[in-house]
Amino acid sequence: MKNVYGSRVLVTGATSGIGRACARAFAARGCDVTGVSRSAREGTEAFRGGGKLTLLPLDVTDEAAVRETVRDRGPFDIAVLCAGMGVAGPLEELPMAETRRQMEVNYFGTLQVIQALLPGMRKNGKGLILVIGSIAGRVSIPMQSQYSASKYALEAAVDALRMELAPYGVRAVILEPGDTKTGFTAARASTVAEDSVYRGTFEKSIARMARDEQNGKSPSTVAKTALALAGRKNPPARVPVGAEYKALMVLLRFLPDRVREAIVTKMYL
After folding, report:
1. Concatenated DSSP letters of 197-266
2. Is the pTM higher than 0.85?
3. What's residue 260's pLDDT?
4. Which pLDDT does position 168 carry in this prediction?
5. Which residues, in sequence order, are CB contacts of 66 under 8 Å at separation 6+?
6. By the 8 A CB rule, do 185 and 210 touch?
7. How do residues 106-130 score in pLDDT, each as one tens digit?
8. What's the average pLDDT block by block, 10 residues per block, for the chain (269 residues)?
9. 107 is catalytic
């Protein structure tokens, strides 16, 4: 593995899905990986080639705990920020508590980890921050408005971050997976009232999402992309994962909004 940043890696959301795949991929390439998640059981696994993966319990919404973990285990050369969750439901009916939880985990949780990491990376004069976004961060999905909003927010934050970090040798990239086969599908929190006028549409939409996700790419596809980015001194700003999603993002540049919305509506509603 070509790695221009260093071998100390932090992965959030490291016990399932994309996070687990990334943590194990970097460890298998000889890196010293600290993997964190709320459900992690503390322990260390050695890999052939000298790499290792140490799992630690950590809730990324706990700012004090995040800073303590980074202080004790850092500084880190690379961070792969995968921790996230999904909330689904018609915007009109989605409880604000669920929306706040969505943003606390996906957006504020990610920012807290980044803020804790940056002093060490700046001091070292190099570093790579890989944020796991989503295609939904550029194409909003009906009935997943707040999940899409959380990923849109990450797109904007990483764009600004990249410019701020450029003088210090630290790079920031947002990865944009599409449908991926993980436990995210089953864990998604769905909210719709029994008598909701949206209920039929919601159920059809969620069923389509679940089917596409479970027939989607393996998390290892994202992990391979993350490994490749670790070998690039000047990585791109954003990376759709998979040839079809790269083509889709190029196509969307030329489609009027009404056409894009018609396509997404046909898919999900």
Report:
1. TTHHHHHHHHHHHHHHHHTSB-HHHHHHHHHHHTT-SS--SEEESSHHHHHHHHHHTTS-HHHHHHHHHH
2. yes
3. 87
4. 96
5. 58, 60, 112, 113, 116
6. yes
7. 999 999 999 999 999 999 999 999 9
8. 91 97 97 97 95 98 97 97 96 95 97 98 97 94 95 97 96 95 90 92 92 92 96 95 85 88 87
9. no
Structure tokens belonging to residue 66: 């995040």
The pLDDT value given to residue 1 = 64
What is the DSSP track for the chain?
---SS-SEEEEESTTSHHHHHHHHHHHHTT-EEEEEETTPPPEEEE-TTS-EEEEEE--TT-HHHHHHHHHHH---SEEEE-----EES-TTT--HHHHHHHHIIIIIHHHHHHHHHHHHHHHHT-EEEEEE--GGGTS--TT-HHHHHHHHHHHHHHHHHHHHHGGGTEEEEEEE--SB-STHHHH-EE---TT-TTHHHHHHHHHHHHHHHHTSB-HHHHHHHHHHHTT-SS--SEEESSHHHHHHHHHHTTS-HHHHHHHHHHHH-
Structure tokens at 91: 């915007």
Q: Is 191 exposed, middle or buried (0-12, 13-18, 19+ CB in 10 A)?
A: middle
Q: Which long-range contacts (CB under 8 A, 24 or more apart) does 204-207 make?
A: 204/268, 204/269, 205/142, 205/143, 205/268, 205/269, 206/88, 206/143
Q: Please tell me the predicted confidence (pLDDT) of residue 250.
A: 87
Residue 220 Cα distances to 32, 74, 267, angstroms? 19, 25, 26
Of 147, 152, 198, 268, the catalytic one is 147
